[in-house]
Write a structure and sequence with these properties.
Blueprint: E1 2-4, E2 29-33, H1 37-47, E3 52-56, H2 59-68, E4 73-77, H3 85-93, E5 103-107, H4 112-120, E6 125-128, H5 133-158, H6 168-184, E7 189-196, H7 199-206, H8 208-224, E8 232-235, E9 240-246, H9 250-267, E10 281-288, H10 296-312, E11 318-319
Bound molecules: guanosine-5'-triphosphate (GTP).
Protein name: diguanylate cyclase
EC number: 2.7.7.65
Enzyme class: transferase
Length: 321
């Protein structure tokens, strides 16, 4: 069972130097993994002045925890029955979703071989038993600060500044990882390209600033439909968006695209020069099995052909080919 220690947010705020993250140390989530409940509670209580700490009593519980909510850091006892701390760390570092979570080991063995084992398993640091409160607080704070800075940098490099959606960098990096994972699980990838209809005219009539506001409103609707952990929406071009829907077949992909078009229609963003008298989207959708065999450009091209067809057929439509 996962045990939750008390949450405490009253610790002093640690500044993030030059790169500001939306998150601070106090809101970071640290998972302490130890089969000895007394030890993990002790460490959790020490860390509660710094961040939010939770405990798990086995590697299996820790993995279950990570599948529900990603921690910012794990503090892991090396010696645990069944799966030990080193093996847990190896497993987490091998997974896409948990690979970047830093791990601090707690170990009673400070011999050279034991230290090498910690580094080779992918650990970021270690503390010795018995744990010295000040030492673990400093080590945890250092790892969390690095993690927050890295998260902030990643956010900047993956985010479109106008809409807050992912940008093309993200798409290019995520696609190979995602397609490998889907291939392993024999799951399809649904992909939709959306394009705002008559957007040149919209800018011409209402001005570029209103055009930007329109794109923000459209983006907010698209974002609402990324409901599962790895669903994503990317601003692909000026008024073009790509939605990735892992493990979604063609009918599901089509249904989501249609719902989005309906939602945009119902926003009733006035557009005098559109036959619909409001802003609408057109969409080209595909769902591909064995996705790893297809480069991203091929999949986009296929969806783009469908989008082109939707435009030809009068716009404000979804075409799935
Ligand atoms: N306001 C604003 N406009 C943008 C942005 N990026 C691209 N655009 C505009 O989007 C318009 C796209 O025009 P077109 O590619 O001709 O497409 P369209 O007028 O929507 O025509 P259809 O797609 O056939 O309906 C251009 O006028 C671009 O200047 C942006 O960030 N903000």
């Amino acid at each position: 069972m996962l045990a939750t220690t008390h949450l405490f947010n009253g610790g002093s705020k640690v500044p993030l130097m030059s790169i500001q993250s939306t998150k601070n140390i106090e809101s970071c989530l640290v998972l302490i993994v130890d089969d000895d409940h007394l030890s993990s509670t002790l460490v959790a209580n020490i860390l509660n002045n710094l961040c939010r700490s939770f405990t798990a009593s086995s590697a299996a519980d820790a993995i279950e925890f990570c599948e529900n909510k990603l921690p910012d850091l794990l503090v892991v006892d090396v010696n645990m029955p069944d799966i030990n701390g080193l093996e847990l760390c190896r497993q987490l570092k091998a997974r896409n979703d948990t690979a970047d979570i830093p791990v601090i080991f707690i170990t009673a063995d400070l011999g050279k071989d034991a230290q090498v084992d910690c580094w080779e398993a992918g650990g970021n640091d270690f503390v010795t038993k018995p744990v010295v409160a000040q030492t673990i607080v400093h080590r945890v704070r250092n790892q969390l600060l690095s993690k927050l800075r890295l998260d902030a940098l990643r956010k900047l490099s993956y985010e479109d500044s106008l809409t807050g959606l992912y940008n093309r960098n993200y798409l290019n990096e995520e696609y190979p990882r995602l397609s490998r994972q889907l291939m392993r699980n024999h799951q399809p990838l649904g992909l939709i390209i959306f394009d705002v209809d008559y957007f040149k005219q919209y800018n011409d009539i209402y001005g570029h600033l209103k055009g930007d506001i329109c794109l923000e409103k459209v983006s907010a609707v698209l974002k609402r439909y990324t409901r599962r952990a790895r669903d994503a929406v990317v601003r692909y071009g000026g008024e073009e968006f790509i939605m990735l829907l892992p493990n979604t077949g063609l009918s599901g992909t089509r249904e989501i695209a249609n719902q989005i078009l309906t939602d945009i229609y119902q926003l009733e963003i006035a557009h005098k020069h559109s036959p619909f008298e409001r802003v609408t989207l057109s969409a080209g959708a595909v769902s591909i099995q064995n996705i790893e065999r297809y480069p991203l450009n091929d999949v986009i091209e296929q969806a783009d052909i469908n989008l082109y067809d939707a435009k030809l057929k009068g716009k404000n439509k979804v075409v799935t080919g």
